[in-house]
Design a protein that fits this description.
Blueprint: H1 10-24, H2 31-62, H3 65-92, H4 95-118, H5 124-153, H6 158-187, H7 190-208, H8 223-226, H9 231-240, H10 243-258, H11 262-273, H12 278-301, H13 307-325, H14 330-358, H15 364-375, H16 379-393, H17 395-440
Helix pairs in contact: 1-12, 2-3, 2-5, 2-6, 2-7, 3-5, 3-11, 3-15, 3-16, 4-5, 4-7, 5-15, 6-12, 6-14, 10-14, 10-15, 10-17, 11-12, 11-16, 11-17, 12-14, 13-14, 13-17, 16-17
């Protein structure tokens, strides 16, 4: 008897997996993007180590959730105040050179914080100043880095590259907090800041190794155009007049204000509610990052972003955050944070790709600056509020507020197309009635 292998057997499964893998990671075939991805993976891991260490440092210095919320707010306040200027810089200057300069400044800030901690002279106001200074760097870095994606891979691969960027971000988010938890519990917070400072060197080396001739530059740098007044208003008008840009940005603004403040809530949840320490905080951040990594990889495997995916992931995020707020113990919280991470990253990757694909090339830096403004820049509004709520009524209340606000705005967005269709149908019936009355007369 001869045996034949089923097309659905091992060979078929391997072929399907190989095809899915190639589709998911196809942007890595581009050399410039591959360098960028590698450098950012190292840097993001260091950045998350610093974020965890900075939060723990503030908790140690103050024992205050409000102070922690204020620190996070200061780091993102510059985006709220000056975010649009970062977009103008991204549209005017060579993005690769801007990124190199931004990484160098960020490295100096991390090295300064390490020095202050290791010499035991650090005070809360110093952490505040350095957090605000890092926020100034992010004003330029964030829109430039986001807009640079299209220049590296071209418009056809933007959804895939955005998904891979999100996956890379969350791979670092998975490694960084876990490493920070180990480092803090064994050697204190100072080494985390030093590791982050060194990680920026890798990014600078990767950016310098790129081949500028292979970039997909849509417009040349023009100093005269760059100095033209009214560029910020021009970018705002472009967004407001384009529904494909306006609607996702409104949704991200509300969810970003209330939903994306885990850096404030999770330390208090780990320490005060679940009675754990830095290792538990690192674990909770890490499992959420694992879910976010899975969500980013799923987003990277999709051909185009859709509105249904954007709104649906927003609804799922709200529901899952509410479930996490009511979880009875650390194990249940850790399990729920995985799908929370999946939904939040699917939401962000879909919104990001939607904005990049629907923005004018000459406006892309400013559009992504507005995205940073409504995503990161709203943190100074939501961070202190959630810190206050978590400190006075518990971290579960802070999570409940996040989930409720996110769910409500996503449900409103879910119902908007039906409302518009009913309004259009009503208007059409009114027109038909007027026409019918006119004919009868």
């Amino acid at each position: 008897m001869s045996l034949t292998r089923s097309p659905f057997g091992d060979d078929g499964a391997r072929a399907a997996v190989g095809k899915a893998t190639r589709r998911t990671f196809r942007s890595l075939r581009v050399r410039n993007y591959r360098l960028f991805f590698t450098g950012q993976l190292v840097s993001v891991s260091g950045t998350w180590m610093q974020q965890v260490a900075q939060s723990w440092l503030v908790i140690t210095l103050t024992d205050s959730g409000t102070a922690l919320g204020f620190t996070v707010a200061l780091q993102f306040l510059p985006m709220l105040l000056f975010g649009m200027w970062g977009g103008v810089i991204a549209d005017r200057f060579d993005k690769r050179q801007v990124l190199i300069a931004a990484q160098a400044v960020a490295a100096v800030l991390a090295l300064t914080l390490w020095t202050l901690v290791v010499t035991d002279v650090v005070q809360l106001w110093m952490v505040y100043v350095l957090a605000f200074a890092l926020g100034l760097v992010q004003v330029v870095d964030m829109p430039t880095r986001q807009a640079f994606v299209t220049e590296m891979v071209g418009p056809d691969e933007v959804p895939n590259a955005v998904g891979l960027n999100s996956a890379m971000f969350n791979a670092g988010r998975l490694v960084g907090p876990a490493a920070a938890g180990v480092v803090i519990s064994t050697a204190g917070v100072a080494p985390a800041f030093l590791v982050n400072a060194v990680s920026y060197v890798v990014v600078i080396a990767a950016l310098r190794a790129m081949r500028p001739a292979e970039l997909y530059r849509t417009t040349a740098v023009d100093d005269d155009c760059g100095r033209r007044p009214g560029q910020i208003r021009e970018g705002l008008r472009h967004v407001w007049r384009t529904p494909e840009l306006r609607s996702p940005l409104i949704l991200v603004a509300v969810v970003g204000t209330f939903g994306f403040n885990f850096a404030v809530v999770l330390p208090l949840l780990a320490r005060d509610t679940l009675h754990g320490g830095a290792p538990l905080y690192g674990l909770l951040t890490g499992v959420m990052a694992l879910g976010s990594l899975l969500g980013a990889l799923f987003a990277a495997s999709r051909a185009r972003p859709t509105r249904a995916r954007l709104v649906g992931s927003g609804v799922a995020f709200g529901v899952l955050t509410l479930a996490t707020a009511g979880a009875p113990n650390a194990a249940t919280v850790a399990v729920l944070l995985v799908p929370v991470g999946v939904s939040v990253m699917l939401f962000l990757a879909t919104a990001n790709a939607t904005l990049q694909l629907n923005s004018s090339p000459a406006m892309r830096g400013r559009v992504m600056a507005i995205y940073g403004l409504v995503f990161l820049g709203t943190t100074p509004l939501g961070g202190p509020l959630l810190g206050f709520v978590s400190e006075h009524w518990g971290a579960r209340s802070g999570l409940a507020l996040s989930g409720t606000a996110s769910l409500v705005v996503a449900l409103v967005a879910l119902g908007m197309p039906s409302l518009r269709r009913r309004q259009a149908a009503g208007a059409q019936r009114a027109v038909e009635a007027i026409q019918a009355a006119g004919q009868a007369a």
